[in-house]
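Q: Is it fine to ask for two folds in a single conversation?
A: Yes, each is treated on its own. Send the first.
Q: Here.
A: Result:
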Amino acid sequence: MDAKKGSTLRRGGAGGRRSGRTINKTLVYEYALRCAIKAYNEQQVKPGTPAATKRERHTSTHLGSSMGDVFSGLTDSGSGKSDKLNKEVVRGLIRRLEEIVSGENTAKPEYLDQRFLTVVRQFQKVLQQHRYKPTGTVNDLVIIFLKTSESELKRNNPNPAVWYGDLNKYMACFSEVVITTVEEDAPSMATPELMDKLSGFLTTKKRSDTRSTDKSSPTDKFEALEKYPMIQTLQQVFKIDELEHRKKLREVEPLCTESAYLIDLKKCINNVHTNQPFPGRREDYTSDQMYDLWQKREVKQLTELMKSLMLMNPNLSIGVDSQDDSGGAFTYIPNDPRSFFRVLMDACLEYDVVTNGDAERAKSSVLSVQSDILLRECWKGWRLSAASRGVLYLELIKTRFDYEQLNMEDLNDAMRSLDRVIKDNDVSTWAINDRESLIRVFESLNQTLLHELADALSVYWKVNPRWISDIIAMLDKIYENPAYQEDHDNPLNQLHNLEEVVEGAAVERWRLVQKETTDPEQDLLPNLLTLADKLIKEYVSLTNKKFKTPLKDIINVPGIIMARQMPYFALEIENWTYTPDCRNAPIEVTFELYHKVLSLKRLYDQHGPKNKTVLFKVESWFMSHVRRWLITTSNATLEWVENAVKQDQFTRINDTTLHSSSIVDLFSMFHQAVDFVQNLQWPNELQRCRFLTVLSKVIGIAIQQYTLTIEDLIHHQDLFAPEVREQEALTTTAAFLGRAQQLMGTRKEMEAPADFTKELCVRINNIEAARLRLDRLYELVDADEVAEYMRDNHVPAQEKTEQKKNYLYSVKVVRGENLQPLDKTGLSDPYVVLSFGENQSSRTRTVYETLNPRWDQTFDMWLDDKTTDVLAVVYDEDMLGPNEECGSVWFQLSPQWFDDYQTHELILSLHPQGNLVVRVSMEGEKDDIQFWFGKAVRTLKRAENDTAGLIVDRMGRFLREHLSRRTLTTLLGREKSFFSAFSRANTFVEPSLQDCEDCIAPVLDYLERNLKILNDHLSEANMRMFIIKLWKDILTSLESVILPPLSELQSDLTPLDEYEMHVVFKWLELLKILFNGGEDGDGVPLDRLENSSYHALLAVNAAYTMDTDKLIEGYNGALKNQIAMKMRGGRKTDRSKTVYQSRHTNKHQAARALPVRKSSVATDLPNSEAILRILRMRPEKQARDFLKTEFERRNKAAQEEQQQQLQRQQGSAKALPQRTSSSNTVPPLPSHGSSPRNPTRYASLVEPAGVPPVPPVPRTSSVSTSGRASPLR
């Protein structure tokens, strides 16, 4: 840059740097004193005259309005933004001036002066230009009004002495209007500075050019001058003796005239035009364009200052014009203004910082208000630019900061002041000398700031983050300055040296922290906890408060610190893991340390160095402790269950929650355990999945134990009282006596079982609640994702049991269905014998007088890995003679079929008839979360189903006792005796519907009471399942009254006659009405009650009295229909509208419909088994032969099918046993009524109608007559 060599900004010489010679402070004091005297004289002229205001404005235009905030005048922006013109001020002035011109406002005499009105009209034209887009300031409007008034007054008389007083009045009036406008329309602009400036025009004192009007004596004038604050401040700053100060004041006071100031201004203009060193010349700027810009601005400002001075004193120009203004020294400007101003500012700073520290400070400045005023007066007169002043002030503040005389806030204020200068005056427009000074100061300040930053980082844990941010902010301003960037290619490289400082500080800090957190009297684990906690707090403070971002995106202070300290911490943890105390450390404290270590790891991963080393071996450090926790949790599982059940009163928690407290307690423990594992946030995902899998096993075992406990309570405390269990445990002799009593006719009628309890319902609800909560827990642990992740990562569900030669099987004999009747009563006394190989066998207890027994007995056996054939034989226990075989079946046990370790329910078809339900499982487990949850869910579902079955079994015994042929005989009066055979009167009268109801009143009462209890306290789902099973059992009981059991032998039972059949179907109708809800029909919907089993029972009537030939023909047709049904996919033909057409009946309609019911009977026959059961009651040889032939065919087909099934199982290595599931549903049951039973209400729902040839038509849901209150509402 060639222009740098010719920079000669100072008057006394060339060169951009400070002169080596020492500046005489006495000369600085003298020239500053001259400026102070000039300021005093200006004040005495008239502080508020337009000329003074004009001069103040023009002075401010070049060097700033004031130096009030140290340097509000560092900018060349006039009076600043506080008086910037806006629309509110412009519109308010237009409105008020229009009121004056129009004559609306005549408050002042001047408002009637035509000359004033002419000035206002001319000013209005100028003001209209600012109406929509205001520019400039309020000061500009005052100057414009001043010039307009001066032109108008000169037109009438050019002599200023004539109209000078009028000018003052015009300016005072206009100023008052402006003040009112600002205060009312733009109060935010009404700053004290602006108001003071405008108020100065309101004074009306005149000033005499010769001061002839001043009657004060010269002595008084000198005393006033001596007491002038600026002069006193100057004396104090330079510490001048009072006598010398007074002497110097008397010496220079005569020199300080307005004429001398005017001559100085003219000399400055002349120097600018002749390219003199002061105030500036072409060589001082980088280009002609920059120089021309400065020259025009400087000449304009100097010219306006001269005009203002002559306007204030019109006679001044006459005397000055005659004087020679070329060459010679300046009166007010020293020969080296820049150097003189440096000395003056340094002296002011020294005085204010050291001596006058309590003085009132200027805004955002170290300087006092009086020093600020003194400096402002000097730089205005000495023509110093804002750039030079700003750089000089920063340099001096920085020097005192280095000597710790000033703080960072003072340095910030100086930097902000310089920022304002740079913002208002682009560095490219600066003089070369100012630019060089700026770079030099920035270089020195950069070194100072880097040293401060290094000192701060060396104690980073103590440093205030604001201190760091202030340093970085100043460095940013330095590095972003275009002039600095031109001379420094990459200034950020200097910051790399700070990394070593941070590393050393991190090591030193580690020693201090370790020393603070180590207590020799404690174990290593508490010390590690304290250390980790200390580090976490410190790192969080570093990353969130002190060093949120890297310093200039280069120095990542938290990352450097962690990179140095974390290896030490990892070594401490590693050493602890090898100590003996680690293995037995308290679980709670250990995992507290784990979470702190995990927090440190997250901080390290987020803020640590980019190229991280594997420091945190969390898996190896804490894996053994997680295993310890899992083992402890597993061992506490049984205790969980026991405590939950022991503390449970089995009462509902509240009106809306149907389960009891044990469910809440148990699953609270489950959730705590799951939350514990999930809150670990284990770094290794595969290991985390394994933890959840192991925990699922713990939960599954607990659920299984809880279910078994609840089932045991239901079986032994709720359903079967101790006396019932004692009856079941009768010896063979006691059983023989009971059978003998039955044969002799002395057996007592069975009493109704005890009513169900609320506790039973709550226990059943607990099982359902456990299943539902387990489903939610399954979703909570994301079991599907866990299992999928383990499979995707090549971790198959492996068997946890070792390969053994023997396997433990569990076979539970659940129940039998439709067994072969072998006793004369049409029933059997069945028990089951399981044979495993040659020497192993197991036997169940005997269940008396039933074809659908329930054993629920489990047998465990050890078998090898080969396939084992198991023979299950059902025997009928006889008191006299050998036990007969009811049926038998083979099935197989093999690891290849039960290797899923789940419980499989097998429905085995017995030979010759009936089914045997067994549940088989092989002990073992899989490393699969779905396995354990699935096993638990299946356990709960089976428990729900079994419990419903137990309830129905308990009720079924009582129902079958009353819904029997014995009850029919009693009702019809057909009890057989010795004399009945000789009775002549053998006529029978069909019992009424009320009679039919009364004979089964114990059943209806029992059902009504217990269904109400169950419906009130069971959940909706459990109640649906129970109703389905109970209704099916009732239909089966009624069917057993009509038909004998299925067998190939002829039955001793005789067919029911017409009257007996009517009674049976009336019972069916009464029970259906009870379940449907009585007269309201708001119980179980009819479409659920009138199901396929219901219609099958009705269909029996169509074939009951049919000829044997037609029955055999119908049987063959039924077989064909069954084959067709299989081809249709197992769907049965809908008989809901073919067997009996439903009718909307009431009390009168039923009576009219009964005579024609015979024509509504459909011709559909029952199924094949029902036909065979009917044929058993036929005495014809044809029927006996057909039964024998058909059973031989059926047995042969069953044997062939069983052999084929065994062959298929042997041919498939992975063939699984048959698994069954059912999902019968009924709609939800409404709330029940609470009225007691009325013996006549059920009969009123069905009309008696003589003795029709067919059973009565089933009642539909439209019946609306009075009846028994339904317990299912």
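Q: Second one now.
A: Result:
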Amino acid sequence: MIKTEKSYPERRLRGVLEELSCGCYRFLSLADKDQGHSSRTRLDRERLKSCMRELESMGQQAKTLRAQVKRHTVRDKLRLCQNFLQKLRFLADEPQHSIPDVFIWMMNNNKRTAYARVPSKDLLFSIVEEELGKDCAKVLNETLCPTWDQMLVFDNLELYGEAHELRDDPPIIVIEIYDQDTMGKVDFMGRTFAKPLVKMADEAYCPPRFPPQLEYYQIYRGNATAGDLLAAFELLQIGPAGKADLPPINGLGDMDRGPIMPVPVGIRPVLSKYRIEVSEGSVGLAPQGASPSGCGGGQGRPHPGGQGYPWPPLALDRFRLSLLLLLLSVRLPVCPSLCPGRLPRGRRVLCDGGPSSHPPGEVVVNMEPEVPVRKLETMVKLDATSDAVIKVDVKKKKKKGSSEEPEEEEPDESMLDWWSKYFASIDTMKEQLRQQEASGIDLEEKEEVENTEGLKGPMKGKEKAKAAKEEKKKRTQSPGTGQGPEAPEKKKPKIDELKVYPKELESEFDNFEDWLHTFNLLRGKTGDDEDGSTEEERIVGRFKGSLCVYKVPLPEDVSREAGYDPTYGMFQGIPSNDPINVLVRVYVVRATDLHPADINGKADPYIAIRLGKTDIRDKENYISKQLNPVFGKSFDIEASFPMESMLTVAVYDWDLVGTDDLIGETKIDLENRFYSKHRATCGIAQTYSIHGYNIWRDPMKPSQILPRLCKEGKVDGPHFGPPGRVKVSNRVFTGPSEIEDENGQRKPTEEHVALSALRHWEDIPRVGCRLVPEHVETRPLLNPDKPGIEQGRLELWVDMFPMDMPLPCSRVPTLGPPPPPDCEPASPLPRYELRVIVWNTDEVVLEDDDFFTGEKSSDIFVRGWLKGQQEDKQDTDVHYHSLTGEGNFNWRYLFPFDYLAAEERIVISKKESMFSWDETEYKIPARLTLQIWDADHFSADDFLGAIELDLNRFPRGAKTAKQCTMEMATGEVDVPLVSIFKQKRVKGWWPLLARNENDEFELTGKVEAELHLLTAEEAEKNPVGLARNEPDPLEKPKRPDTSFIWFLNPLKSARYFLWHTSRWRFLKLVILALLLCSVPGYLVRKTLGA
């Protein structure tokens, strides 16, 4: 009204308000006559009264507002009029329609698959144009991509302003697009704005500025996008010579509208013949009555994998389309930027030159035998003139004592299972993330240093050396207290690993859209009230397929590179989408950081699986009071692709009373994975093994997978031979030619070299791509009631096996040992018993002062427990009155516990309180704590020192007390580390430390102990007694005679504390007393002369 209409917009606004006021009063008069109609219900009467009140108030406001409209207040009053419009639309919407809506169904094999719902008010006929339904007598002769090929000329325009201002800032051109119907009013569709290219009279109409180039302009309808307009605009100044200097206009036009002619040749795009191929897969439609505000809340763009989809994708009514290759010949602009901007994503455009080909030559991939793949380094050297060589070298073992990377331990395969493999992979992933963070921090620090140097100028040599020294010191310091820079690194055993992805698998492989892409099906506009609706709110389904656009005829090099005749289309290698029965095996490992669902801040989670008509709820195996539960479960589901392909894995909170609450769920589109060339059906392992924890679990061996991939990709090969060598296309792979069975016998095999080719499949020319490795993916959990907020993360992976091939046994990742071949549930956790014998102590600090003599002494006893079992701590007896810090005990502790070897954790199950319904499971590091105390009878015992030993890796004990130093515990010296789970029995001296007033560690004593680990079966066969009790009692220690309690033995105390320390004083006093007693008699006798 302000920008695009004629002058005096305030007059038009006054007229609109006057018409609104009159219309309101006319409605009141008609409604007043019809108010007492007998057929009206109470709801009708009350609603009519409400409408009359609203319109009466609106009419008065419009009349008042009309008098306030001035030229300078048009904008403000126009905003108030928008409120009138919204209120009228609200009142016009009937809450209860008396005429039913019209449904138009689409049928497929006598089954209703989709429908269109047309409101009855859009079809009603009336002689009044404003009351006519917008779809009444409408001819469906429409297009969403119109082509005009017209040039509009506006002649003799007068513009006011300076010439240079008009050239730099030309006026804005407003382009509005309308929908012209045969009957009914013209509907506004959208508008766009553009600035023309200005040519002044003194400029020549020639390149490079002229003629103008076509551009795309975004069309808007309100705040929503409504399409694109391809056009060019120019503004030509008419000079003194008139129109003679302007480009000529050829053609006749309508004098009322101006000349309308075809687009000039210089501006018209050059067209060429293209072919469009459409490969149709399947269609998913929303069910009847489905609301587009379901799972995910409609936030973000719908993910092809189902995450954040506007409604539960399982509720889609899916039906299969025959694998149709639709070939269309069209003429498109040669310039790619002028091609239709509305082409859907998922297209593939082949340029004139086609995809580039690799240089010829052989690529040799060497794999050294009997070396874990994780320790291999790959160096790639590519040369256009020579053969490309890919070598796989092996790291040499480091010598003992060198400062380089420590040598890996040889693991005991009898103690390894899938969990060992998993947690080793978790450690590797964490280490990689730490390295990435460290590299990022180093880069930031380097930039800060460079910026600082640039501001402060160059540093002096001494200052620079000092800064470098401090930086090096900071980086070498260990974060732990008392851990020096030379602390020994943790040695990692040689364990075959898998790939742990910290995000969804789709993000690593481009959503598996190598040929099957997902396109949203949008609902068209149904009324003016949907102008502000977003694209997500209009989604009614999705279509799966592929589009390919390429210029014809294709060059010969493209045909040669494709490996087949492209005349019959580029989609010749795609798999068929005929219905196929598939066994889907879902492995759920664990969940992390779940959102609390109970008032105690915890949750009782369990797993629920939905696929097609199958709904599995593992309610019986819920985990009590855990936000980081370990499930270790697998679920087998039979499904038919592509009709049943949306997998939902949900985590629920178990409740004793009421319904269970949904914590979060994740959705996986299995159809894209199953048909992907990345082979996401079953991950490729690092190594091939026929026994042990790393046994091959794919029903097809590597030597069977490789020929199948070569056949599907029309690649030459594989050619095996000589042993340990295979050639695929122009690539040669080498590796071990033998494999070791369970009995240790070596047999010839081709599996290793075939696996080497599969793991380097992306190096194969033309068809090469990354194959999905053996993995565990991490997926976010979302809740429809809390859109956009992550409720936790779930670690899982999915295997898919066609039912027409032999299936492998489900190797379920359980918390115990590997299950037997018949896939029965795993046995419970292994139980151990740790026997700790405290023999002696030495150099214990003396805390007490003797009451009689003032000498330093301590009443020593030793306390021990396993971490997490403080309530079951055990104490030795007391070695009283130790004068030298030496203590003798011969005391035995017994600690039974359940142990999870894969996580190196002790598992404890106990109730949090007396009101708890179930026991809560805790996983605690396996650590033994030993402390020395000074016993006091009339006050609290005094703590003297302690040491905590990690049972998986702790310093080996010293042979003698003199060799035992404080550095053994602080890590300042290189001490061999031992594991009680491998060593089984360890004896030695260990230092006991405590912090002084300066918060520094100091040596407060030494303890001689013996650790002996037995399984529950071994402990039952060889029982021992606690302390010094039967069976197998320990000898009573030989302690000094001074070791006793003084107030329970007063005579003994006098004997040891008084006689042994002051006996010479007593003798002198006795002699002195005897002398004093004999002196008087002697003096008397002397006096009397006796």
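Q: Anything structural to flag on that second result?
A: Two points. The radius of gyration is 44 Å. The mean pLDDT is 77.
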